[in-house]
Amino acid sequence: MKFYYKSSCTTCRKARKYLKDHEASFQERDMSKDPLSKKEIETLIGNRDITPFLNTRNALYREKKFKDHPPSAKKAIELMATEPNLIKRPLLIKNKKILFGFSEDSYQDLLSSRSS
């Protein structure tokens, strides 16, 4: 599993603690210290809908009114590469399943599944 987070984010810290408390095996990456490159973001998103990857609480998201006028996938990826806080976090990835944010129930389901 891969866990992408921002160390200053309270929700991310809760999610990370949950994983450690449940002795989950995962690779972690603090996006505030090691931001994702444009290529990594493209790979992560793949053919998926861009919407869940966007952090709706981000100032740029609100300023640009992305809720009413969502950017194209290409534009969103470019923005996420230059403004990492635009990426919804934390991200927990197991095989092809991606969880956005933190929910104990969702994390438990993902940890208990053998594949997804």
Tell me about this structure:
The protein has helices at residues 10-21, 38-45, 59-63, 73-82, 104-112; strands at 2-5, 27-30, 91-94, 97-100. With 116 residues, the protein is of the alpha+beta class. A four-stranded mixed beta sheet has the order 2-1-3-4, with helices on one face. The model has no long low-confidence stretch (mean pLDDT 94). The chain is globular and about 40 Å long. It is 38% helix and 14% strand. It has a single domain, classed as Glutaredoxin (3-Layer(aba) Sandwich), CATH 3.40.30.10.
Architecture blueprint of SSEs:
Elements: E1 2-5, H1 10-21, E2 27-30, H2 38-45, H3 59-63, H4 73-82, E3 91-94, E4 97-100, H5 104-112
Parallel strand pairs: 1-2
Antiparallel strand pairs: 1-3, 3-4
Entry keywords:
Glutaredoxin, 116 residues, globular, single chain, 4 strands, alpha+beta
Please provide a brief summary of the model.
The protein is α+β, with helices and mostly antiparallel strands and 116 residues long. The protein has helices at 10-21, 38-45, 59-63, 73-82, 104-112; strands spanning 2-5, 27-30, 91-94, 97-100. It contains five helices and four strands.
Task: Report the sheet-strand fraction.
Answer: 5-15%
What is the percent of helical residues? 25-40%
The total strand number stands at 4
How many angstroms does the end-to-end distance come to?
11 Å
Summarize the biggest pleated sheet. 4 strands, mixed
Mean pLDDT: 94
